[in-house]
Every structure is written in structure tokens, then in C-alpha cells.
Design brief:
With about 425 residues, this protein is mainly alpha-helical. The protein is built from 19 helices and four strands. A two-stranded antiparallel ribbon has the order 1-2. α3 runs parallel beside α5 and α8 packs antiparallel against α9.
Length: about 425
């Protein structure tokens, strides 16, 4: 995980004794997992499984070694066939491979294997919620979001918003149903927590969305699919075309609906940009790469018209960069990634995107394509002629969002930013949960 931090932070941590060599760390863990039988073996196995099946999917580019994970897990399950942790990872691997039925079965077995460690049940509920949402089974996704909201203390604001987002995906316009959604979303701001005086990024995102729902007449566009995207769920869905087909139909219908009342929708650019981003992810999974490229560029082109969801533009640029990397167009990918990292700030889930960008740029360096910074020459969105859009912050809080790290030294903040101290750009790291 330390290796995924920016180079300046890495140098500081290495000065106090921490190493950021990912390859060396993983190789040592693999050696430890092979020392069998020993206490070290299962511990190293759990760390490797966590890295390859969770960390790389939540914070990285979904480049975990699933084949290695399966080999490690096979050995562990022989010795611990009812081990709650290994059953959980078995379900996680099945989920990543797109086999939702197998994943659900393994998570349920993990829950049934023990009743003392209730907190681990919550991890399984979390994954079960996503498994059912990937399958567009909104009712079961609602069930597990509600269980988490009532039983888990991690982030009730996040759970409440997820429950409401899944409810909004149901084709139900009864007064009782709408009142239930309204009641849940009204609770979200009150449920928000602070850690060391900072807001948790995913909670702040949920609060912003809840306020936007109220401001635009009790309406949100594809909120559950948006949640799937920000939690990197499309990297899993894209492995199974049967999961993608119903989702792209939902997106297409939402686009058609948007066009019918375009003139009356003040937030049309926000909604249209989101739909284009989601459609691009679906087309990328279906290997329609040219159409996906068009969708990402279309989403990024909404920059000056977006009022609230400013995260859409930098996220679209990163997805376009990843698409170019997939096509070995690395020289075109790098300026897009640099632009997303340097030209945008103070948007939702900024730290999470910076982790992904850092992982991708590191991969580009390994490919030998990293040259001098050329972020001022962006193909899809020309930063040299960009002017900052007029932002409407009426749905935002005045508190600071918890950041993992500030933009790199190449990304010069505003002159009045507290990141500049005596003319020197400082980078800071805050240890926090996503």
C-alpha cells in the first residue's frame, strides 16, 4: 500500500524506515506464504489475498493477480475449510470473476461459519450488497444496505444513501415508496461523521447527493450505477457480458428520458455527463472501444456546463487515459492522466482518483513510455484554453474533506492555499478509511 503513495511521500516514509518497493514486498509475502506449516504462512496468505482482491480494486486499477490468489486460497482452504476469512476471500474471487451466484454462496457460508465475530458479518453483507447490485437485483441490495445501516457503525450515512440509491432504481412511484426514500435521504446529513475534524470522502459524497436530490425536486439520475462506478464495480461487471447487458439498457433508457425534458432540467449537463461516463464504461466492457472513447470525451466536454458533479470530468479523463493504455496509445494517455491530476481540485472523491492515477502513471513508467511532463498538451480537453467553470457550491459543506495527499509539486495550488508554506509546496498524508 505504501508503494501506491506519491514519490515525495514515499521518500519521506523511507527516511523514517518504511519501504515502498511493491515488487519486493509481494515477493517476500509469497515466500512467507510458502513456508508451510508455520504461523507465518496463513498470515502472509491473508495479506496477499487482501492486496490482490481488495486493495487493487478499490484504490488501484484492478490489476491484482487472481490466479496467484486462487492458488494460495486453495492451499488455505484445505487446512481451514470452514475458515471465515478464507471463505470470504473465496467469495471475493468468485465476485471478481463475475460469478455472482458462487460469490453469494461463499459469503453466506462465511457468515454461517461463525457467530462470535459480528463485524466480519458486516464485511460479507457489504459484498453481498454489491453482488446483488451488479446483478440489478435491487431488492436484495436494499436488504443488505439496510442491515448494514442498522448493525454497522462504520458509516451510517454511506449505508443510508446506498439504501436510498437502490430504492430509486425500482420502478415504483407510489407515495409510500417516495416517502420512504425522502425519509432516508433526510437522515443522511445528520448521520455524517468526522474523523480528526475532517469529513470522510464517501460520506461527503453521500451528503452532496442527498442535498442535490432535494434541490432538484426529489430526483437523481442512475444513483445506484453511479455508486457502482465510484466503488470501481465496473472492473468486475465488465468480466461478465450477462451482467453488462441489463445495465447498458438502463443507461440508454435514462439518456432517452433526459432528452425528453432537457429544456426544463437546469442540471442537464451533470446528468448527461454521468450517463455518458456510465455508458462509456459499459461499452468498454463490451469491447466497443471507439464508442467508449466517444462517450468519455463527451462526458469531459460537459466541463463548463456542470453545476454540481464536477468529479465527472477528471474521472472521465482518467477512464479515457486507461482506454488509450489498453490500446497501447500510451503517449496519448499520459497527458490525460496528468491533466486529471493537476488541472482539477476540490471535487468529490479526489483522493481516491489520485491513488488510481498514481498507480497508472507508475505502470506507464514501467512500460518505458514516461517522458517529460506534457500535461499542457491534452488531446481531449485542452488545458491551455481552459477557464475554471463557475461552481455552484450550494450543496456543499464548509468543512474540509479528508485528503490522503495533496496534488504533486507539478500541480501548483491557488496562491491562498494552506498547502503553500513559505513558498514551498507541502504534501501531507492523512491515514484514514475510505
Amino acid at each position: 500500500m505504501i508503494s501506491r503513495l506519491p514519490s515525495k511521500v514515499l521518500r519521506l516514509l523511507e527516511f523514517v524506515g518504511f519501504s515502498g518497493n511493491k515488487e519486493y514486498g509481494l515477493s517476500e509475502l509469497e515466500k512467507g506464504a510458502l513456508i508451510y506449516p508455520s504461523l507465518r504462512s496463513p498470515l502472509c496468505s491473508m495479506v496477499l489475498l487482501s492486496y490482490h482482491t481488495i486493495a487493487t480494486y478499490v484504490l488501484g486499477t484492478a490489476d491484482g493477480d487472481i490466479e496467484l490468489s486462487e492458488r494460495i486460497l486453495e492451499t488455505c482452504l484445505k487446512d481451514y475449510p470452514k475458515g471465515v476469512i478464507f471463505l470470504f476471500f473465496s467469495g471475493r474471487i468468485a465476485e471478481i470473476k463475475g460469478d455472482m451466484a458462487e460469490a453469494v454462496q461463499k459469503f453466506e457460508e462465511s457468515i454461517e461459519s461463525q457467530q462470535e465475530w459480528k463485524q466480519f458479518h458486516h464485511l460479507c453483507y457489504w459484498e453481498l450488497m454489491w453482488c446483488h447490485s451488479y446483478s440489478c437485483d435491487w431488492l436484495l441490495a436494499i436488504k443488505f444496505a439496510e442491515k448494514l445501516k442498522h448493525e454497522s457503525r462504520w458509516s451510517k450515512a454511506t449505508y443510508a444513501y446506498q439504501q436510498a440509491a437502490f430504492l430509486l432504481m425500482l420502478d415504483n412511484s407510489s407515495p409510500e415508496h417516495l416517502q420512504r426514500i425522502n425519509t432516508i435521504l433526510l437522515e443522511v446529513p445528520q448521520l455524517k461523521q468526522r474523523v480528526a475534524g475532517k469529513s470522510i470522502p464517501v460520506e461527503k459524497f453521500a451528503v452532496r447527493k442527498a442535498r442535490k436530490y432535494a434541490m432538484q425536486g426529489n430526483r437523481l439520475v442512475l444513483p445506484a450505477l453511479e455508486l457502482i462506478y465510484i466503488w470501481n464495480g465496473f472492473t468486475i461487471i465488465n468480466r461478465n457480458p450477462h451482467l453488462l447487458e441489463p445495465i447498458i439498457k438502463i443507461v440508454e433508457l435514462a439518456i432517452i428520458d433526459l432528452e425528453t425534458w432537457k429544456d426544463k432540467n437546469e442540471n442537464y449537463a451533470d446528468d448527461y455527463g454521468l450517463c455518458m461516463l456510465l455508458k462509456g464504461m459499459c461499452l468498454k466492457g463490451l469491447k466497443c472501444l471507439t464508442q467508449a472513447e466517444h462517450c468519455f470525451m463527451e462526458a469531459a466536454s460537459c466541463e463548463k456546463r456542470i453545476r454540481y458533479d464536477h468529479y465527472i470530468v477528471p474521472y472521465s479523463l482518467v477512464e479515457l487515459g486507461l482506454l488509450f493504455m489498453r490500446q497501447d496509445r500510451c503517449e496519448e494517455a499520459k497527458p490525460l492522466l496528468e491533466s486529471a491530476r493537476c488541472d482539477y481540485k476540490h471535487y468529490s472523491l479526489e483522493s481516491r482518483l489520485h491513488f488510481r492515477i498514481h498507480s497508472v502513471l507508475t505502470e506507464l513508467q514501467k512500460r518505458g513510455s514516461a517522458g517529460p511532463d506534457i500535461s499542457t498538451n491534452v488531446t481531449a480537453v485542452d488545458s491551455s484554453s481552459r477557464t475554471s467553470p463557475q461552481r455552484d457550491n450550494s450543496i456543499d459543506d464548509n468543512d474540509e474533506e479528508m485528503m490522503f495527499f495533496e496534488p504533486s509539486a507539478q500541480c501548483v495550488p491557488d496562491a491562498d492555499s494552506d498547502v503553500i508554506v513559505d513558498g514551498v509546496i507541502q504534501q501531507k498524508v492523512v491515514v484514514a478509511a475510505l
